[in-house]
DNA sequence: GCGACAG
DNA sequence: ATCTTGTCGC
C-alpha cells in the first residue's frame, strides 16, 4: 500500500466531490460523486446511487445518514480518486470525527471537509480577499479554517478528514474554487444528485450498467471490489 | 437549565 | 437539506 509521509509533496491527479440530495417529504435521497482532473478540472468520472435515509437528521450524526448512499455511489466509480472532498466537516466536529473523517477511514483515501455553515468551535471573520482565512478553534486546539474562497462572499469552513494536512486541504479547496464560492467538485456533485432526484419518481433501483459481468447492485459491486482488494486499499 | 447545532 | 420570485449589484 502506498502511503505518503507527512512531509511528502501531495500532488493529487484526481479529486472527487461528494454530495447527497434529499427529497422533501420522504427520506428518499440521491448521492453523487464527480471526479475531476486536479489540473484541468475536467470531469474524469462520475457515479450516483439512490438511497433512503435511515433516520432523521441529527447534528453530529450526519455521517451515519450519508455514508451508506455515498459508499454505494463510490462503488460505481471506475477510478479510485486521489482525494475526496466532502460536503460537511472532518475533525471540526463535537467528537472530532465528522463525515469526512468517516469517509477517509472507510475508504482509506485522503479526505477533507468543506462546510457552508459553522458547527462547533469559535473564530474571527477572515479578511475580505480570496485566500484569507482565520482559525477555527475550540478548547485550545485548531479544528480547521474559515476560508474566503471569493472576494466578499461568505467564507467556507475547511477541516481535515483523513491523511491530509490543513495546509494542503486549504490549498486544494482554493484550487477548486475558480469561479464560485464552493469547490467545483462539490458543485458538480450537487448538481448531479439534484438532477438525478428530480428526474426520477418511481423505481429507486433503475441504475446500473448492463453488459458488464459485474453486479448491478451498488452495494454488492462495492463489496465485490473490496473482496478483490481493488478498491480503496 | 437553555439555546445552538454540518446536511 | 427543502419550500421559492424577483431583485440588486458587479
Automatic annotation (TrEMBL):
Keywords: Cytoplasm, DNA damage, DNA repair, Endonuclease, Hydrolase, Magnesium, Metal-binding, Nuclease
Swiss-Prot/TrEMBL site (Interaction with target DNA) positions: 57
Catalytic activity: Endonucleolytic cleavage at apurinic or apyrimidinic sites to products with a 5'-phosphate
Region (Disordered): 197-233
Localisation: Cytoplasm
Compositional bias of kind Basic and acidic residues: 217-233
Main location: cytoplasm
Record's function text: DNA repair enzyme involved in the repair of deaminated bases. Selectively cleaves double-stranded DNA at the second phosphodiester bond 3' to a deoxyinosine leaving behind the intact lesion on the nicked DNA.
HAMAP family: Endonuclease_5 (MF_00801)
The protein's name: Endonuclease V
Source organism (scientific name): Planosporangium thailandense
Primary gene name: nfi
Amino acid at each position: 500500500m502506498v502511503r505518503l509521509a507527512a512531509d511528502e509533496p501531495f500532488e493529487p491527479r484526481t479529486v472527487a466531490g461528494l454530495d447527497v440530495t434529499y427529497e422533501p417529504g420522504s427520506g428518499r435521497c440521491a448521492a453523487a460523486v464527480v471526479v475531476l482532473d486536479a489540473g484541468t478540472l475536467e470531469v474524469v468520472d462520475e457515479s450516483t446511487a439512490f438511497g433512503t435515509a435511515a433516520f432523521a437528521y441529527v447534528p453530529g450524526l450526519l455521517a451515519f445518514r450519508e455514508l451508506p448512499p455515498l459508499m454505494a455511489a463510490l462503488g460505481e466509480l471506475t477510478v479510485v480518486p486521489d482525494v475526496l472532498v466532502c460536503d460537511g466537516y472532518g475533525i471540526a466536529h463535537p467528537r472530532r470525527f465528522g463525515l469526512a473523517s468517516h469517509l477517509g477511514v472507510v475508504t482509506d483515501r485522503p479526505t477533507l471537509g468543506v462546510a457552508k455553515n459553522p458547527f462547533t468551535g469559535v473564530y474571527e471573520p477572515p479578511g475580505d480577499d480570496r485566500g484569507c482565512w482565520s482559525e477555527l478553534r475550540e478548547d485550545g486546539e485548531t479544528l480547521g479554517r474559515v476560508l474566503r474562497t471569493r472576494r466578499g462572499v461568505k467564507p467556507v469552513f475547511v477541516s481535515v478528514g483523513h491523511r491530509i494536512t490543513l495546509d494542503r486541504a486549504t490549498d486544494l479547496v482554493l484550487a477548486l474554487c475558480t469561479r464560485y464560492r464552493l469547490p467545483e467538485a462539490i458543485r458538480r456533485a450537487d448538481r448531479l444528485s439534484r438532477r438525478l432526484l428530480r428526474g426520477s419518481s418511481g423505481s429507486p433501483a433503475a441504475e446500473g450498467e448492463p453488459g458488464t459481468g459485474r453486479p448491478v447492485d451498488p452495494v454488492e459491486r462495492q463489496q465485490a471490489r473490496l473482496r478483490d482488494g481493488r478498491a480503496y486499499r
